Amino acid sequence: MHVAEVVSAAVAHGTLGMLQATGRLFMVTDYSPEWSYPEGGVKVLITGPWQEASSNYSCLFDQITVPASLIQPGVLRCYCPAHDTGLVTLQVAVSNQIISNSVVFEYKARALPALPSSQHDWLSLDGSERGGLGRVQHVLVYVMKNGLPNSPFTVFN
Question: Keyword Ribonucleoprotein on this protein (predicted)?
Answer without folding.
Answer: no
